[in-house]
Amino acid sequence: MDLNSINDFLAAAIRMAAPLMLVGIGGVFTERSGIFNIGMEGTMLIGCMVSVYVSLVTGNLWLATLAAMLVGSLIGLIHAFLTVTRRADQIVTGAAINLFALGITNLLNSQLYAGFEYRPRVTMYPIVAPEVLQELPFIGPILFAQPVIVYLAFLLPVLATWILYKTSWGLNIRAVGDHPHAVATAGLSVNKLKYQGVIISGMFAGLGGAALVLADLGLFATGMTAGRGFAVLAALVVGKWNPVLVAAACILFGAADAFQLRAQTAQFAIPYQLFVMLPYLLTIAALAGLVGRTVGPKTVGKPYDPESI
Amino acid sequence: MNYKINKLDSTRLLDIGGLVLSGGRPILAIILAFLVSAVMIIIQGANPLEAYSAMLRGSFGSVAALANTCVRAAPLLLGGLGVALGVKAGLLNVGIEGQIYVGGSAAAAVGIMPIPVAPWLHLVLAVSAGFLGGAIWGLIPAYLKAYRGVSEIVVTLMLNYVGIQLCSLLVHEPSPLAEKGAFFPQSPPILASAQLPILIKGTSLHLGIILGLIAAIILAYVLFYTPFGMRTKMIGQNPEAARYAGVNVKKQTVVALILSCGLGGLAGTGEVLGLKLRLFDYFSGGLGYDAIAVALMANSNPVGVIFSALFFGALRAGAGKMETAVGIKAPIVQVIQALAVLFVIMIGFVEYNRKSKQDKRKEQMPEDTIYGSELNK
Amino acid sequence: MDQSNDLSTLRMVGISKRFPGVLANDNIDFEVKAGQVHGILGENGAGKTTLMKILYGLHQPDSGEIFLNGKKVEIHSPKAAGDLGIGMVHQHFMLIENLTALENVVLGLPTKHPPLLDLEPARNRFNELTKEYDLHLTPSSPVWSLPVGDQQWLEILKLLFRNAKLLILDEPTAVLAPKQAKQLLSTVRRFAQEGRAIIFISHKLEEMKEVVDCVTVLRDGHVVGTVDPKEVQSAQLAQMMVGRDVFLDRRERAPYKDKKEVLVIEHLDCLNDRKLPALRKIDLTVKSGEIVGVAGVDGNGQRELAECITGLRQFTGGTIHINQKPVDGVINDTTLLGYIPEDRHKTGLVLKFTVEENLILKTFEELPYTKRGIIQWHEIRQKADALIKEYDIRTPNSMVPVNHLSGGNQQKVVVARELSNKPALLISSQPTRGLDLGAVESVHNFLLKERNRGAAVLFISTELSEVLTLSDRIIVMFNGEIMGDLNAEKVDVNLIGELMLGHREGLEATP
């Protein structure tokens, strides 16, 4: 690879990591609260479609972003109702949400662009850095010629870390996934915290979907999330449920993704598929204890029964 | 073999009573799903009755339609049985999708190889390879679950993508399975001797559905009539009691999960050797996830899985007819399917709550958590 | 926030609480005063835990009232209890392992600058308190890295931090080494001097004498009396705890000839689930044709003993032989060992399996139930029907899921399975827990029948009266040791009570 393509690759890596990082933030909160949300994949997909639809109708990309977050939160609320209030199996519930998301987006796909002769690209997130910076050699395109949402994606992990470690609510969220009974005896509402965690994960999955469309592709395509929600689940394990580390894992996975796209076209010695596998193999290795102690929130996946003290 | 099956046993073998009781729940859920979808159809400006009757014709209205239903049901049946076997052993195998790719790849590898044996033997070898591929793939989650205490759920989920990419790797050059100079990444065609025979001429109905039916009956039989089945259900219901009764819980976990994954591999085998006739990139397209829904709708009863797979197969088969007849897009069936699953979850837990109020204690089952299982502490 | 500062008395009046089948608290009156350590003594099931859960807001009483400084209060939740200045250290720690010590302490507390956590003032307070009470806790160490003893201290620190004026300590020394226990006791005294009230639940007589000002003895949900332990004999306290107004008749039995050693345990050591020593150099022999009763308060090693013998728990030292065969794994030879486990729901039965499946849970792979790899259901059904008749299991038929049966009949299923192959050794752990009187009677009959057949029976129960009724010999367990080995024919109940409390002097006094 020459310098130009390296530059291009790094810029793409960061752009492609942004949606993952956003979803990852939500993932941290839901799993810390003790709820496993594989429905983030489907929620993200719906977020993609909603943002395109609202953008086409209103022409306002911020409204589109908000709408995606709102719909995502709503799906999170349904997930929380089923898994927290009804204590349904978290995996099955999430899988059902994914099936629903796939079905409904496939169904509405043809109507999304009804009235258009061709599929227009929607307005994208603006690039806000001054042109002087964007034109800096090498680092300009990587750091400054990025849509604004990328900066948000880099800022949020820091903010999330601050919330988790410096606020009371953050402490409560960190506690509830490990030992809900202790949280209850401390006078806090376990279910409320879990609802909050799941709804936040839905909201960020929606936002991640919007970012995927409005920062990168500008179009909706069926099944366009292509497993990114699952990659985030992997990043949570590799990043040990710490927002900054999870974000770092997402950047790594984004880079692997950007790299495999390039490896597909260029004749590269290592098959690109290996790069796609990488996040998942890393996760299994982490869980198997091959890379240090990986112990997640203790009660993830298990319904909370207040009376089984 | 010299054994008696009296009347009582044969009804219990199929668990007819349980099937009827547990059947009420999914049937109600399906009705609700159709009702909600009818509203969507009305919003889209079509008559839901017309739409559904077109769908029915498309799935059961003719020999070709019925054949289509069975073709679509075959991988769901085999995959659903894989999930069901896992659930019986207290394991949630959400990795059928990956197993479909790995099993399919293994079957294709044997299927494109000109092996100098009788044609039927070539087919048997290819099918066995598919099953073994899935089973060996299953060693990873099985070992990690039994001996390292790692949740099978996360591992099988993660392995889906590894499996998909492995298959992709195999159909791209320079892999020995890739067809040289092909326009698409694909394998050479499966040799005729290794193809699943077509059951009805002029349709694509292949032997896969029969394989699935046989597997369902064998699984039902094994679960009820063999010590292996007994041990499997024991570790699924109460591993502590199983240990107390002398069952080697780890070994049983490994074997049950491997077989569950093997069934997943068989689902992919049917698709490759019977329908696609080559190995392609992304040839499953999510069948493995649907298989989870299939097992859930059947409450993991092997005989119930037959009906539930046929139902899902019929939805897909009828979708095209509905689209041409009333203009409702085919993916509506995916929505119906997902809604049915969501309603089963909701109804299921109403029942759970009622039961648990009656006698709290009895319903408590040991539940594993995803990241904090015993061995990992 | 500190209305709790002025706690001077807390009075519980006429507290009653009924659970299905048991009256856990029956019109209990109870009072603690500031500056006092108030002990509570009682056997398992005497109602201590229920009373404390009511005080801590985890249960609501069916009747009765609670007065704080003479004013009536309602305690609906642990939070309400905390607001009143009542704090409790549970036997199962309420600590979050992945958080630091300091974070555990401040969890749920309001902060000065919401939403900020504002740990600095809390850290200072934490350090002040640890210094004041001479605790070696670092605020920033994660809880998972702390030894169990420190976790106990952290629980107490949580209460101090909330400025609790009434501290409920439920067997606080159970997890502590002797030296740590000593420090805890002196700290408890200090709390009293500071004007706090302490409720101290323990089964150890020595530490009761050392630390409490008065002790209330509970038995079968009643208050037996409140005394100063320094002024009464240990024997008298023991009598209050275990004494029975009507002593059940001892069951008649003929002496068994031809006694052989069946179970031989030598120097057995093992750890409990918390990796702490549960058994310390146990020696025990049980012969054919005798019932050896194991008395003792729950949690003194009885469960671990049963699990070691049956091979379910690995032991760390010593040997166990059953009929000369060493135990080195789970035993499922039903002619050698029958085991009625403590928890029939968790261990003894597969609740969703049918009666017949549960009856052959250990033998289904043997002839004639499995032939050439195929389960022979008609054979199983025949056997099940015979056992249902023999053991009088009340069930419509053998194909009913066992969770549809009553507790007594479920236990009969376990008993039938474990006894039907005439085991040489029978371990029976709390076999009558939660059963009604009729079912208790029939379980007792089965155990005696086994003894008379020539089985060696180890009968573990926290219900002292049934140990007295059934046993030929009685051993008393305390803190992982066997305190005494007594002839049941002429044993003194009060002596057993003393041994249960870890007090050996009575034994030495009687030759």
Walkthrough of the structure:
Chain A starts with a helix and ends in a 22-residue tail after the last helix. In chain A, helix 1 (3-32) runs antiparallel to helix 12, helix 11 packs across helix 13 (273-287) and helix 12 runs antiparallel to helix 13 (273-287). Chain A has one domain (3-121, 137-287): ABC transporter involved in vitamin B12 uptake, BtuC (Orthogonal Bundle), CATH 1.10.3470. Chain A is built from 13 helices and no strands. The radius of gyration of chain A is 20 Å and the shape is globular. With 309 residues, chain A is mostly helical. The mean pLDDT of chain A is 90. Helices cover 71% and strands 0% of the residues of chain A. In chain B, helix 4 crosses helix 12. With 377 residues, chain B is mainly alpha-helical. Chain B has helices at residues 7-14, 16-43, 48-60, 63-88, 96-111, 119-148, 152-171, 208-225, 227-237, 239-244, 249-276, 287-297, 302-326, 332-358. Chain B has a single domain, classed as ABC transporter involved in vitamin B12 uptake, BtuC, CATH 1.10.3470. The longest helix of chain B has 30 residues, at 119-148. Mean pLDDT of chain B is 87; it is low at 1-8, 350-367 and 373-377. Chain C is of the alpha/beta class and 511 residues long. Chain C folds into 2 domains: 3-242, 3-Layer(aba) Sandwich (Rossmann fold); 261-336 and 423-509, Rossmann fold (3-Layer(aba) Sandwich). A 6-stranded mixed β-sheet of chain C has the order 6-7-8-3-9-10, with helices on both faces. Chain C has a 6-stranded mixed β-sheet with strand order 16-19-20-13-21-22, sandwiched between helices. In chain C, a hairpin with a 5-residue loop joins strand 11 (261-271) and strand 12. In chain C, helix 13 (407-419) runs parallel beside helix 14. Chain A binds chain C through residues 165-172, 174-175, 178-179, 181-188, 295, 297-298, 309, and chain C through 58, 77-79, 82, 90, 92, 94-99, 103-104, 106-108, 111, 114-117.
